[in-house]
Amino acid sequence: MGLNRPITIGRIDYANVWPIFHYAEQWLPRDRFIIDTRVPSALNRALAQGEIDITSMSSYAYAEHAKDYLVLPNLSVSAKGRVNSILLITKKPLETVLRGTIAMTSTSATSVNLLKIIMSLYYKANPSYITMEPLLDSMLEQADAALLIGDTAIQASWRNEGFTVIDLGELWKSWTGYGMTFALVAVRRTTAEADPEAVATVLHALTESKRLSLQDPSPLIEKACVQLGGEPSYWSRYFQELTYHFGSDEQAGLSLYFDYAKQLGLLDEEIQICFFEDHTALQVNE
């Protein structure tokens, strides 16, 4: 049992994922675990192609390959309402946007498809979409609105230039009554079957990092101010408004998102979320 190579772990290096990873590497020996940092879309591809074993990933990308993956329990990037970093930004009236063109980030699948769901089922609109690099000025030169995610979205929201900013997490909540899960942590089934103890080690490291980060977010707040700018008060609220668990409420909201995606033909089949089962804790308690 076990793999004769290190386990490769994908990390999204957006601030919204920091709590899950900030402390984790101290429990992941470098001779056994490799951390690979990329944007969400690149990690999604890498997991699908078997280049990495475990990753934080877009919820939609998990659904596309759900039969090949297992979700690590109680880890996510979710929001019960406002998410602050999944934003539709426009200089034009919403009526123009709904019948116009929206430039979408090239870095995330979940947010792109959430926008399509909201446009189709909530606004009853059918705008055109173009995919671009996440550069706000360029996007708004070619389109009526821009969808940005992560740190780029946060920094764009600080620009006081007459933009209208629609938070997709907040809009989803007001429409459906549910929170939204934007990212999960998933492992390839083949990796989980070949080396469940290594996967359990990763699960424990990420869970403990989450616990420590939520217990005292001040190191993350300081890091965000240094690396990304902004005031401590902003980042304190930012981390408080995100949810890093994946309990029944988060699962219900994500299941609704998957149902809507299938309804619109964005997913081919119904999604059953399957979890990695950590048996090491049971063994310890016996």
Characterise the protein shown here:
The longest helix is centred in the last third of the chain and has 20 residues, at 196-215. The strands form 2 sheets. The chain has a 6-stranded mixed sheet with strand order 2-1-3-10-4-11. It has a 5-stranded mixed sheet with strand order 7-6-8-5-9, with helices on both faces. It has helices spanning 18-21, 40-48, 59-64, 94-98, 109-122, 136-142, 150-157, 168-176, 189-194, 196-215, 218-228, 232-241, 248-263, 280-285, and strands at 7-12, 33-38, 54-58, 69-79, 86-90, 101-105, 128-132, 145-149, 164-167, 180-188, 242-243. It has 2 domains: 7-78 and 180-285, D-Maltodextrin-Binding Protein, domain 2 (3-Layer(aba) Sandwich), CATH 3.40.190.10; 86-176, D-Maltodextrin-Binding Protein, domain 2 (3-Layer(aba) Sandwich). β6, α5 and β7 (128-132) form a beta-alpha-beta unit. It is of the alpha/beta class and 286 residues long. The model has no long low-confidence stretch (mean pLDDT 93). The protein is globular. Helices cover 46% and strands 22% of the residues. It has 14 helices and 11 strands. Catalyzes the dehydration of chorismate into 3-[(1-carboxyvinyl)oxy]benzoate, a step in the biosynthesis of menaquinone (MK, vitamin K2). Pfam families: VitK2_biosynth (PF02621). One of its GO terms (biological process) is menaquinone biosynthetic process. GO terms for molecular function: hydro-lyase activity.
Helices and strands in order:
Layout: E1 7-12, H1 18-21, E2 33-38, H2 40-48, E3 54-58, H3 59-64, E4 69-79, E5 86-90, H4 94-98, E6 101-105, H5 109-122, E7 128-132, H6 136-142, E8 145-149, H7 150-157, E9 164-167, H8 168-176, E10 180-188, H9 189-194, H10 196-215, H11 218-228, H12 232-241, E11 242-243, H13 248-263, H14 280-285
Parallel strand pairs: 1-2, 1-3, 6-7, 6-8
Antiparallel strand pairs: 3-10, 4-10, 4-11, 5-8, 5-9
Function: Catalyzes the dehydration of chorismate into 3-[(1-carboxyvinyl)oxy]benzoate, a step in the biosynthesis of menaquinone (MK, vitamin K2).
Family: Belongs to the MqnA/MqnD family. MqnA subfamily.
InterPro entries: Menaquinone_biosynth, MqnA
